[in-house]
User: What shape does this take?
Amino acid sequence: MTTRRNFLKKTGILSAITLVGIPKISNAISIENNFAAVKKPVVLSTWAHGLAANEGAWKILSANGKALDAVEKGVMVTEADITNLSVGLSALPDRDGIVTLDASIMDEQGRCGGVACLERIKHPIAVARLVMDKTPHVLLVGEGAQKFALDNGFKLEPKTLSPEAEKNYKEWLKKSEYKPKINIENHDTIGMIAIDANGDLSGSCTTSGLAYKMHGRVGDSPIIGAGMYVDNEVGAACATGLGETVLRICGSFLVVELMRQGYSPEAACKKAVERLVKKNPDYKNAQVGFLALNKKGEHGAYALQKGFNYAIADNSGNKLIDAASYLK
Ligand code: GLY
Assistant: This one.
């Protein structure tokens, strides 16, 4: 009879183990072994508007609050900013002149919630959180999402566009052409990922999506694994940019899985951008940025085009960092 030991001897595996020691079963194990080195709390968010959002999140993280509460309250700062043209109700509308909002949130237990194509509700991220906390579902869309929000005490906001959005929309209507403009038109989703004092990770993502999109279009931001993903054993990631390209590769899930395989946050984001390039022949006309944080509190980002930056807040302050890019 072949015992396990004989089998290992025959195949040479035993001598290999003797020579090099028992191999690591997974990167997650090595991450846990280094748990003492974790830099925490830390919060990261996409683009310069992330600086103000981080301030909101930091109030919670610095008081030993939960990463989940921090990423919700942090991006609410951006949703409430009436000068922002890509997040919240002041943002640019779709081609029918209607602002529709997408958002998602995920916590350290893998619980998650999202809303898509939500109209006239100021804080889609808070509705996404309620979907997670109060329903057996993950994603509510359109009228159903709005009804759920109103049933839970949210207020119906006016239909009117913000003055700046209205001015831009009237200008766009003159030609009604749709072509994404890199970093300008509307690829400025806010994605936020954080690790709290307890070492738990969470993430959030909220946007008005692509400016002048078809009515009903949903991007990557509310789709768990595309616009944002969290695995508390490994890390968290979020995406910004042209959602269609991110959806094709399940971008944020891919970044987290690459970190699980041992890639650093920046290397994982770079690999994901390279995959996106392969799967999107028209990639030169898009911008995408990935942002990642691992269980050790290490962070990194990588973008398709130049110009992507992210905000990081920790015990040393709150600052913007420029990400490296695939196209120079
Ligand atoms: N990344 C946001 C969107 O494409 O809707």
Notes: Residues 7 and 13 are 8 Å apart (CA to CA).
